[in-house]
From TrEMBL:
Gene source species: Anhinga rufa
Keywords: Guanine-nucleotide releasing factor
Keyword Lipid metabolism attributed: no
Residue ranges occupied by any UDENN domain in the UniProt entry: 1-261
Organism classification: Eukaryota, Metazoa, Chordata, Craniata, Vertebrata
GO molecular function: guanyl-nucleotide exchange factor activity; small GTPase binding
InterPro entries, A to Z: cDENN_dom, DEN5A/B, DENN_C, Tripartite_DENN, uDENN_dom
Protein known as: DEN5B protein
UniProt xrefs under Pfam families: DENN, uDENN
Amino acid sequence: VAGENFDQSPLRRTFKSKVLAHYPQNIEWNPFDQDAVNMLCMPKGLSFRTQADNRDPQLHSFIITREDGSRTYGFVLTFYEEVTSKQICTAMQTLYQMHNAEQYSSVCASSSCSMDSLASSIDEGDATSLAKLQRYNSYDISRDTLYVSKCICLITPLPFMQACKKFLIQLYKAVTSQQPPPLPLESYIHNILYEVPLPPPGRSLKFYGVYEPIVCQRPGPNELPLSDYPLREVFELLGLENLVQVFTCVLLEMQILLYSQ
């Protein structure tokens, strides 16, 4: 378990994640920092869901800034896949049995009753709340399907957010599709790593993803730096008043800290 979150129900806890594979193994000008990438890809850790939970894929990005000021950009697609290990499913059910037993004891303690007379002394209100707890806060290995979070990430020298987003979504569809794509998945990964060059300054580049072509554009030397992040999302997240206040703080050269879950 990642962090001290034992009070949460097992499906609301986060667990320690790790990098399963990365390609290429190493690049001289950009050495792979496994701990940093792992933390930034899954900042909350590994999480589990059931068929009753929302499992829509989520996209986010991150920046790694090194001591010399150079930056590397990461784009991450997080999705959920079915847990096929019976050992993990059994462990999840055991965690729920332990958690519900602790909650049962808490209900008992709040009713000032002993374990010996638990059934007879819980009042109607506590019994109702306990029934709801066991109904909605449970995992049954014979009834529920368990899913675990997984992510695929592209690390790039420039922030081509839209191009990376489109490629990751297409790759995800290929991974989850019942009908395999025209070529093996390794072919598409090899293509974007070794055969798709960075577009020259002031030029556009069109390359093929898994299913559809993808276009990325790089500003010229006299243009504003590449900023491929949608401005609309900033307004949606912060709101107009907050954004004006942040912009005012930037103009006044004040220190700004954005805090988020």
